Amino acid sequence: MSLHTPDGYQALDNHSVRTFLAGLPEIRSKLGGAPERWTVEEVGDGNLNLVFLVDGPDGSVCVKQSLPYVRAAGESWPLPLDRAFFEQSYYRAIEPHVEGLVPRFYYYEPKLYAFVMEKLSPHIILRRGLIEGKRYPQAAAHVGDFAARSTFATSDFGATIEAKAELTARFAKNTSLIRITAEVVFSDPLSPSPRNRWTSPELDGLAARFRSDSVLKAAVAHFGWRFLTEGQALIHGDLHTGSVMVTETDTRVMDPEFSFVGPIGFDVGAFLANLVMNYLAQPGHATAADDRREQADWVLDQVPVFWNAFKTRFLSLWETSARGDAYPATMFGNPADATVLAAAREVFLDRIFADAVGYAGVKTIRRILGFAHNADFERIADPARRAPLETKAIELARAFLLEPASFRTPEDIVAAAKAI
After folding, report:
1. Coil, strand or helix: which one is 66?
2. Which residues of 20-39 are buried (b: 16+ CB within 10 A; e: fewer)?
3. pTM (two decimals)
4. Residues 296-348: tens digit of each pLDDT
5. pLDDT digits (tens, 9 = 90+) for 374-394
6. What whole-number distance in Å separates Cα of residue 309 and Cα of residue 251?
7. CB of 239 within 8 A of CB of 271?
8. What DSSP line would sit under 229-268, residue for residue?
9. What are the φ/ψ torsions at residue 56 (nearest 5 degrees)?
């Protein structure tokens, strides 16, 4: 099957990406030397796009391009190319507020639906490092800081009505990826969708039980509705450990093609879920030399580190940089107002945490019963070893959704994960 693409579009390869970059004077200068001396490697291992790493004598860049289909599924699942536009739009919108926490952005080519950005080196994907038993002492705090800075600046607390409306209108057109999230994250995993998969036959009974759990399905649908209707801030839309590249001291968030103006708790919950899943998967990566218990405990300790970094930064920005039209400063000029306003801020952050717990439950279920799974579990080759760990994760996810009163603090998540 040959999919229709607009005039001027072609999927890049190792040769044509050289030609593309050679026509960009600033990029050519950055790489240095003649194009034929550049080394090109296609490294895209995600679900959607082509990714090229290009090295020249003087420098290096990364090129990312949309394909007209879901790469993980092939041409049987067509997908519009415009996700590259929304990804580069997200970088440009938040870069002033999250300096040093995203790759530097260089250039966007609309005809090719491709953009050029900083090649991160010697960074590796956070998920990969955690699976390998490595520790990154700054990563969770950095991601929490990123989530707070990016969402506060684009919320009604940090942005004017006009600025927020422009973001909302622009990113509302990212309908293809919003629909993918609505289906693949919220509806498919608890429906008889042919896209679903799980560790079979070990989890056949669990999958059937979850699909017949009316109360659970209603809870997931409730969060799906809120995902579609709560435009609190410009969110990344897919903030997991596979969307973060790290060294021991540096952290960069990438892959925001799912971005739109949505619920802040969706980003926060996605990252929390991935930390918990990595914790629960650690025994599956144990060896005779390393039982992974210390690594697992360290990963779980990052749950409060991440949340506390997010909350601290969000509150700090609200106190010092509230330029939006929600809770306007002109309303709270009296000394007595300070206590009431501080309490209102705490109530809002408590709500974000509660939302995050629910979204963490949804995200976990989809990674075990849905289309796209986590390498944390998938790299455990023996299904008899993997399935019990996945069962723990999905039962905890059910508790996140149906027992919200049990999860008021990140320490509650830690305790429940240890007890499951």
Report:
1. strand
2. bbeebeebbebbeeebeebe
3. 0.96
4. 999 999 999 999 999 999 999 999 999 999 999 889 989 899 999 999 999 99
5. 999 999 999 999 999 999 999
6. 14
7. yes
8. H---EEE-S--SGGGEEE-SS-EEE---TT-EEE-HHHHH
9. -120, 180
- Which amino acid type is present at position 171? F
What is the Cα–Cα distance from 199 to 374, expressed in whole angstroms? 12
User: Position 66: which residue type?
Assistant: S
How far, in Å, CA of 258 to CA of 414, rounded? 28
Q: Token digits for 64?
A: 């990312």
- Would you mind telling me the total number of residues written for the chain in this entry? 420
Q: Residue 261 in contact with residue 167, Cβ under 8 Å?
A: yes
Q: Tell me 321's DSSP state.
A: -
Q: Long-range contact list for 281-284, CB < 8 A, 24+ apart?
A: 281/131, 281/374, 281/376, 281/377, 281/380, 281/389, 281/393, 283/389, 284/377, 284/380, 284/385, 284/386, 284/389
- Percentage above 70 pLDDT, the chain: 99
* Helix boundaries (H) for 282-336: 293-320
Cα angle value 243/406/408 (rounded, 5°): 60
**Domains plus CATH for the chain?**
16-118 (3.30.200.20), 124-419 (3.90.1200.10)
Q: Where are the beta strands (DSSP E) in 59-201?
A: 60-66, 69-70, 74-78, 105-109, 114-118, 124-125
CB 133 within 8 A of CB 256: no
Q: Are the C-beta atoms of residues 376 and 277 closer than 8 Å to each other? A: yes
353 φ, ψ (degrees, to nearest 5):
-65, -45
Distance CA(273)–CA(243), nearest Å, equals 13
The helix or strand, by DSSP H or E, that contains position 51, with its residue range, turns out to be strand 49-55
Instruction: At 181, list the tokens.
Output: 């999230």
Return the C-alpha torsion angle 317, 319, 324, 328, nearest 10. 170
pLDDT score of 1 more than 70: no
Preceding omega of 80 cis (within 30 degrees of 0): no
- Token pair 């250039």: residue: 107
Residue 282 DSSP class: G
